[in-house]
C-alpha cells in the first residue's frame, strides 16, 4: 500500500493489491471505524461521494471509496490480463478489496456500476458483507433478459449501450469519452445543474488506459455479445438464478431517472433480510444530487447492524 499525490481530490490516493488490480482508493474517517465501501459507476468517479463520505466519517465510519477497474489511477497488474468489465469481476473486486484491507463485513453502498457490483457481492458472498445500500433496487444484471427488447422509450435512453456494441462505438468512446459522459450526466439527471468544474474533475478518471476496453466489454457482455472470463462463469450462473439478498439493505430510487422508469419497488421480494425502500426527488446520481439521503441510508443500515 502507498499514498500517492492527490488525484483530482483533496484526499490522498492510496493503493492496495487485489488478485487482478492495483486498486486506487480514497479513505475517510478513523482507521478503527465501522467500515463502509462506496462504489461509483459509469461515467462517474470517486468524486460522486465527496459529500457523502465526510458525513459518514463524522459518524465514526471508516470510509473506503475505490476507483473501479478502468477508472482513475486503478491499474491491472499485468498487460496479459483480460480487460474485463463483467459484473462478477467487479463484484469480486469489492470482496478482494475488503479482504486486502483487513476489513470485516463492511457495508457496501453504490450506484450504477457500483450498485451492481455491491449487489453482486452481497448476493454471492453474504458472509463477507455486513449490509447493503443499492441505488436502483436489486441491481444484478439478467443477461438473458438483456438479449430482448425494452419499450422504445427505454431503448432510446439506452442509446449508448447500442452504440458500444459496434467497433464504430468503440472508436466513438475512445475519441469522445468526455462528450459522451457529459451527455449521459445531463440525460440521466435532468434536474441536476452541475457545474463544468464538477464534471471535468470526474472526467479526468476516464483517461485511464483501460477505460475504453473495460467499458466496451461491460456492455457487450451485458448484452450477451461478448464472452466473459471462463473462470467467472460459475459466478455468473449463480447470478442468473437471481439469488436473494439476505443481509440488511436499503434500496433507493430517484424519481427523475430515465434509466429506471417506474422505479424498483417491485424488487422487494428479492430482499429477504431487513429491508427498506426510499424514494428521492433526484436523477441517477443520487450520491451527488442528494448526498444527505444517500448517507442517511448507510447510517440506517449501520444502526440496524448495531441493534442486532
UniProtKB/TrEMBL annotation:
<dbReference type="InterPro" id="IPR000073">
    <property type="entry name" value="AB_hydrolase_1"/>
</dbReference>
<protein>
    <submittedName>
        <fullName>Alpha/beta hydrolase</fullName>
    </submittedName>
</protein>
<dbReference type="Pfam" id="PF00561">
    <property type="entry name" value="Abhydrolase_1"/>
</dbReference>
<dbReference type="InterPro" id="IPR029058">
    <property type="entry name" value="AB_hydrolase_fold"/>
</dbReference>
<feature type="domain" description="AB hydrolase-1">
    <location>
        <begin position="35"/>
        <end position="137"/>
    </location>
</feature>
<dbReference type="InterPro" id="IPR050266">
    <property type="entry name" value="AB_hydrolase_sf"/>
</dbReference>
<keyword id="KW-0378">Hydrolase</keyword>
<dbReference type="GO" id="GO:0016787">
    <property type="term" value="F:hydrolase activity"/>
</dbReference>
<dbReference type="InterPro" id="IPR000639">
    <property type="entry name" value="Epox_hydrolase-like"/>
</dbReference>
Amino acid at each position: 500500500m502507498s499514498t500517492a499525490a492527490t488525484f483530482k481530490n483533496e484526499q490522498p490516493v492510496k493503493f492496495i493489491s487485489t488478485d487482478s488490480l492495483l486498486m486506487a482508493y480514497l479513505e475517510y474517517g478513523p482507521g478503527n471505524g465501522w467500515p463502509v465501501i462506496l462504489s461509483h459507476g459509469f461515467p462517474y468517479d470517486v468524486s460522486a461521494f465527496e459529500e457523502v463520505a465526510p458525513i459518514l466519517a463524522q459518524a465514526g465510519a471508516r470510509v473506503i471509496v475505490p476507483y473501479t477497474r478502468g477508472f482513475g489511477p486503478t491499474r491491472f497488474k499485468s498487460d496479459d490480463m483480460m480487460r474485463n468489465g463483467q459484473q462478477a469481476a467487479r463484484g469480486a473486486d469489492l470482496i478482494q478489496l475488503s479482504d486486502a484491507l483487513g476489513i470485516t463485513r463492511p457495508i457496501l453502498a453504490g450506484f450504477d456500476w457500483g450498485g451492481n457490483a455491491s449487489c453482486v457481492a452481497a448476493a454471492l458472498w453474504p458472509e463477507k458483507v455486513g449490509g447493503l445500500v443499492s441505488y436502483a433496487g436489486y441491481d444484478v444484471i439478467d443477461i438473458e433478459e438483456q438479449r430482448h427488447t425494452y419499450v422504445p422509450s427505454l431503448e432510446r435512453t439506452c442509446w449508448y449501450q447500442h452504440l458500444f456494441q459496434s467497433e464504430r462505438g468503440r472508436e466513438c468512446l475512445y475519441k469522445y469519452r468526455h462528450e459522451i459522459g457529459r451527455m449521459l450526466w445531463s440525460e440521466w439527471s435532468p434536474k441536476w445543474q452541475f457545474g463544468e468544474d464538477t464534471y471535468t474533475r470526474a472526467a479526468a478518471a476516464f483517461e485511464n488506459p483501460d477505460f475504453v476496453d473495460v467499458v466496451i466489454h461491460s456492455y457487450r457482455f451485458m448484452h450477451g455479445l461478448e464472452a466473459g472470463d471462463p473462470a467467472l462463469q460459475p459466478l455468473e450462473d449463480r447470478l442468473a438464478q437471481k439469488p436473494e439478498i439476505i443481509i440488511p439493505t436499503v434500496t433507493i430510487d430517484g424519481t427523475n431517472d430515465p434509466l429506471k422508469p417506474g422505479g424498483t419497488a417491485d424488487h422487494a421480494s428479492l430482499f429477504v433480510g431487513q429491508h427498506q425502500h426510499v424514494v428521492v426527488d433526484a436523477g441517477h446520481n443520487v450520491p451527488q444530487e442528494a448526498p444527505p439521503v444517500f448517507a442517511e441510508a448507510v447510517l440506517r443500515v449501520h444502526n440496524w447492524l448495531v441493534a442486532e
